[in-house]
Amino acid sequence: MAAAAAAASRTLLYSSHSKIFFFPFTNCSRKLHRPIINKNPIFVPLRCLQSAQQNASTTHDPMRSRSSVVDILEERGLLESITSDNLRSISTTSTLKAYCGFDPTAESLHLGNLLGIIVLSWFQRCGHKAVALIGGATARIGDPSGKSLERPELDADTLEKNTQGITKVITRILHMNSISNVNGNDNHLNSSSFFVVMNNYDWWKEVRLLDFLKQVGRFARVGTMMGKESVKKRLESDQGMSYTEFTYQLLQGYDFLHLYQNEGINVQIGGSDQWGNITAGTELIRKILQPDGDVAFGLTFPLLLKSDGTKFGKSEDGAIWLSPSLLSPYKFYQYFFSVPDADVIRFLKILTFLDMEEIVELEKEMNRPGYTPNTAQRRLAEQVTLFVHGEDGLNEALKATEALRPGAETKLDWKTFEGIAEDVPSCSLASDQVLNVSLIDLSVSSGLLDSKSGARRLLKQGGLYLNNSRVDSETKRIEPQDIVDGKVLLLSAGKKNKVIVRIT
Ligand SMILES: Nc1ncnc2c1ncn2[C@@H]1O[C@H](COP(=O)(O)OP(=O)(O)OP(=O)(O)O)[C@@H](O)[C@H]1O
Ligand SMILES: N[C@@H](Cc1ccc(O)cc1)C(=O)O
């Protein structure tokens, strides 16, 4: 903890207008710390452009030969496409600067978005730099990729709230994981792990339409823009597409150009639905800056799909949110603990940083007789919860899991009840409706079961629990010592169905 606090004190957090930058104090280049401010962001002085190009494409570090981050991503099932295969070799000899953008269209990121954070973290682990970009400007336009309908416009308050929410999630995860590296918990990471959170509204608010059309628009071919998947699909639909959403790809394209020129960022990553937007950026860089050879790269990863083939997303029902205020670490943990056997190995490769050898070994174990069910799921749930919610979140999840396990030895106390309260249905009853009342009656009045006959049947089958202890006697009545700290008790029907009864 002390080391974590010391590392945290080495960070500088400052906010500028609506955005927050987060810069760990590390030995990385000053250029990334302090973006060059251009009065007119479209024009970039030649001197700065040259140094950005050098910075972006030739930051050689001959002393250090790394594993290729591209090969690692491919091995783990995290690579869909790259704009040039040269990225493989360049990534072993140069320090790359990779960014992934997230539009603040919800208050939190979700499991699908986690892939972008994980890929950024792989770049860090291989010695590269990571930048998370909040799309404060692009969210005002709305990305048509993968959407069959025009996105609803977001008002300024919602945008601000969402921006704060997702900035918090990203900084928390990347910060926690950078610190754990600095402490040496992970061999792949070292004190030069580095990340920045930026907001594209900071440059878009300065861009003037006429400058943009003159300097950038001229290089964007309408035919190419129309050929993008996101546009083709929408044009075939009844609703068609607004000019505003049609321009989205150019906005994201310009972001890459801007980040390349001003920050030396030379890789953009995203889910496979982002291919059209990412290549809009590499094309603009190629056409406007006319560099010699490959200097800016795009890399996409496959979309994480549910077993029914639909994408994990914020718009879908029951999103797996990364913010603990929208989904508790306990529920988050439980989600991964319940992943079907058919998915667990794929998820371990994609969503954790465990060595491939361990994952392959777990896969073999699953097929051996005597395998303890859910061993792989437990490892997955632990690792993903640790990455997203840190040690405290994982402990909270494990404690709640244990407390809610029927037959668990854990003594239930008031604090444990508080920890699980959000995740378990509850009811409030007056003390005379509980004390001295038969357990069978209470099972019905608390809403745990529908009928007394059902409660009796369950009790006979050994499935009725009071404070995690199985009850065998049909005549059991609630006594004062059954009420934890004089305030609550927990009733369970089988493994999953539970009710907290609060005494008013
Ligand atoms: N299921 C997913 N698997 C992998 N990547 C995803 C998934 N969902 C979103 N992403 C990626 O996360 C980044 C941000 O995407 P975006 O903000 O559009 O999320 P979204 O949930 O798809 O939004 P919406 O539901 O509003 O379409 C993009 O790089 C996108 O490809
Ligand atoms: N278009 C991305 C977000 C993004 C925004 C700006 C960028 O420069 C890059 C990515 C998405 O949907 O979610």
TrEMBL record:
Query: Entry's InterPro entries?
Result: aa-tRNA-synth_I_CS (IPR001412), aa-tRNA-synth_Ic (IPR002305), Rossmann-like_a/b/a_fold (IPR014729), S4_RNA-bd_sf (IPR036986), SYY-like_C (IPR054608), Tyr-tRNA-ligase (IPR002307), Tyr-tRNA-ligase_bac-type (IPR024088), Tyr-tRNA-ligase_bac_1 (IPR024107)
EC code: 6.1.1.1
Please name the Gene3D superfamilies in this protein's record: HUPs (3.40.50.620), RNA-binding S4 domain (3.10.290.10), Tyrosyl-Transfer RNA Synthetase (1.10.240.10)
Reaction catalysis annotation: tRNA(Tyr) + L-tyrosine + ATP = L-tyrosyl-tRNA(Tyr) + AMP + diphosphate + H(+)
The first-level EC class reads ligase
Q: Does the keyword Ribosomal protein apply?
A: no
According to the entry, every stretch annotated as the Tyrosine--tRNA ligase SYY-like C-terminal domain falls at 418-499
| Pfam families tied to this protein | SYY_C-terminal (PF22421), tRNA-synt_1b (PF00579)
Query: Where are the bilayer-spanning segments?
Result: none
* UniProt entry tagged with the keyword Nucleotide-binding: yes
Database matches in SUPFAM superfamilies:
Alpha-L RNA-binding motif, Nucleotidylyl transferase
Q: Which UniProt keywords apply?
A: Aminoacyl-tRNA synthetase, ATP-binding, Ligase, Nucleotide-binding, Protein biosynthesis, RNA-binding
**Which family does this protein fall into?**
Belongs to the class-I aminoacyl-tRNA synthetase family.
**Alphabetized NCBIfam families for the sequence:** tyrS
Q: What is this protein called in UniProt? A: Tyrosine--tRNA ligase
Species per Swiss-Prot/TrEMBL record: Salix suchowensis
